[in-house]
Amino acid sequence: MPSSDNNLHEGGCACGMVRYRVRNNPFRTSVCHCKACQRRTGSAFGVGIYFKEEDFKLLRGELKPYRFRSDESGRWLSMEFCTSCGTTVTWTAEVFPGGRGIAGGTFDDTSWLKIDRHVWTRSAHHWMAYPPGVERFDKSSR
Fold it and tell me: What is the mean pLDDT of residues 104-112?
């Protein structure tokens, strides 16, 4: 993905009250299979797109934090969700100081996303099939 100042992407929550913009390229794109991401999403995994904190801007709405320690890594995570519809939009994590994770499904256009790793695969559902060429880690890759 080429880097440029025009590399802007926007997204938001399910009800539209929260909107955000990111600029530049993410420093990490991954799928996380940990139990916390399964519970947070109500699905088999979470898609995390990580940017530098200064590349994220909340355009409108209010995000409410929920901070907890992962039962898998023991590190803290601070999830931020829409106070109206409950969509988890973004988070900060002890493992990435100065970074901000964005829930991949909240972007308006996801055609530019390229997932390059799967983490906490030891917690993945038994039916999970991994695309060829992606890195896989039983635990966190960091």
Answer: 96
Give the residue numbers spanning the domain of 36.
8-135
Q: Is 61 a member of any domain?
A: yes
The tally of domains found in the chain comes to: 1
Distance, in Å, from the CA atom of 73 to the CA atom of 3, rounded to the nearest integer, reads: 32
Task: Give the integer Cα–Cα distance in Å for 100 and 79.
Answer: 10
State which amino acid sits at residue 62: E
pTM of the model: 0.88
Q: Smallest Cα–Cα separation from 140: which of 66, 34, 25?
A: 34
- pLDDT tens digits, residue range 56-102? 999 999 999 999 887 777 889 899 999 999 999 999 999 899 999 99
Looking at residue 102, which CATH number applies to its domain? 2.170.150.70
Long-range contacts of residues 69-76, Cβ cutoff 8 Å, at least 24 apart: 70/34, 70/36, 71/35, 71/36, 72/34, 72/35, 72/36, 72/120, 72/123, 72/139, 73/34, 73/139, 73/140
**Beta bridge pairs of residue 135:** 117
